[in-house]
Amino acid sequence: MPTVRTRFAPSPTGSLHLGNLRIAIFNHLLARHHEGQFVLRIEDTDLERNVEGALEGILADLRWAGLEWDEGPDVGGSHGPYRQSARGNSHRLAALRLEAAGRAYRCFCTDEEVAAARTGDTPGPECPGRCRSLGSGEIRARTEAGPPPVLRFAVPDDTVSFRDEVRGDIHWEGRDIGDFVILRSDERATYNFAVVVDDIAMEISHVIRGAGHLSNTPKQALLFDALEAPRPVFAHLPTVLGPDGRKLSKREGAPGVRELAGEGYHPDGVVNYLSLLGWSPGDDREILSRRELVALMDLDRVGASDTIFDPEKLRWASAQHIAAMPLEALVDAVASRVDRSRYPLSDEELPKAVDAIRTRLTTFGEVNQHLALLFPEPETLATGHAELAEEEAAEVTLRAVRQHLEEVEDWDPETLSGVVREAGKSAGARGRALFHPVRLALTGARQGPDLGQVLAGIGPRRAAQRLTRALNRITG
Length: 476
Ligand code: GLU
Hints:
With 476 residues, this protein is mostly helical. It folds into four domains: 5-73 and 240-308, Rossmann fold; 87-237, 3-Layer(aba) Sandwich (Rossmann fold); 325-371; 378-475, Arc Repressor Mutant, subunit A. It is 45% helix and 9% strand. The protein is built from 19 helices and eleven strands. It has helices at 18-33, 54-64, 88-100, 111-117, 136-145, 191-201, 217-226, 257-263, 267-275, 290-296, 311-323, 327-335, 349-357, 367-374, 378-388, 394-406, 413-427, 432-443, 451-475, and strands at 5-8, 37-40, 104-107, 150-153, 159-164, 168-173, 181-183, 206-210, 233-237, 240-241, 307-308. It has a three-stranded antiparallel β-sheet with strand order 3-4-7. Strands 1-2 form a two-stranded parallel sheet. The chain has a two-stranded antiparallel ribbon with strand order 5-6. A hairpin with a 3-residue loop joins strand 5 (159-164) and strand 6. Helix 18 (432-443) packs across helix 19 (451-475). The longest helix has 25 residues, at 451-475. The structure holds glutamic acid. Glutamic acid binds at residues 9-11, 43, 195, 209, 213.
């Protein structure tokens, strides 16, 4: 197979939302699968719609998701080769070539004339006049008289057929397309034209994008043919619907990549989940590493039907990827988020505390909320201890636990769970009668992580202090 070159072509009109990110993911994974290249092209020709800072945001979002591009904007420099706006000359030259070959013509109709001629069943804002058949003398005269014309592509009447890897063969009638503008009167290329000229120049082999672009594809297929370039493989991914059944879009409140990064979703979980919207690895696996995704991705298993975005599933995928992290990496990922004023943990204490709560984390951002289970506010602890004061039997149990703990050398969760049970045995308490008072004494709560985890997470000094304080409250 010739080199696979895919591209992600966002417009810098705002930050990326999950729908766009999914498109980038498919392009990235397919390129990696075939050891090809993933190209980033910023489609910034629509100057009025460009948003300040959006480009930097898009680059940051892609980096966060681990979707590094092989070619693309020269980050830091102001004019990388893959900013569409910097390629105006190539667009104009290609348009002139089409005009010279009789495949495009100057249209002098004004916007008002075009709008006035538009009826319900015209395919688009077509040329309402005879511009397609003007003679060269008239063209020259009208060009000189101004205002400047637009350039329209002369769409042949025949059927346009193209193959979509997801949907199969698709046919459009030329008359349903209409002669569309390729160069505006200020000589800027329109979207359909710029995309094709750039895809040819960048030797893109696969155009993978959302189903919303399906109706642009016949125009683009015609342009590839007219420019005598081979058409790329087209694949239009199924539409993603929000939980309310409406198309997922920023306007409808699709989560932004920036927000998910801010909340601390595991990027691999996000990439994993989004790659399954419309594609399947061929079995029922739902949690896949990057490496597995790269190994398995192909267009054959992309389905055509709409898929539904499930925020709960996304969270679950993030949790699964967090659970699979080595402790050290997890500590690195959460360290900067830990509220140090509330949890003044030393470098040695933090990993133990994180280990105790790790199975509860669905995002890195939840770290403080779960650390509160180990390091409750003084009032929470005091309330728990007050409850204990009502339970006479607790005293014997807590004394036994405190004493047994003094002898523990390996302060790890399994050993500690065993020690608590041993202590319970010596005090004649087991099951709830054992765990309930110990938990209340240590955390002030009735529920929480396994007691061995709690003890390992808070360490011997705090454990002894809390048990002593609880005992003091019981004995008044
Ligand atoms: N710039 C287009 C968009 O943001 C993508 C064009 C394409 O993939 O062909 O929707």
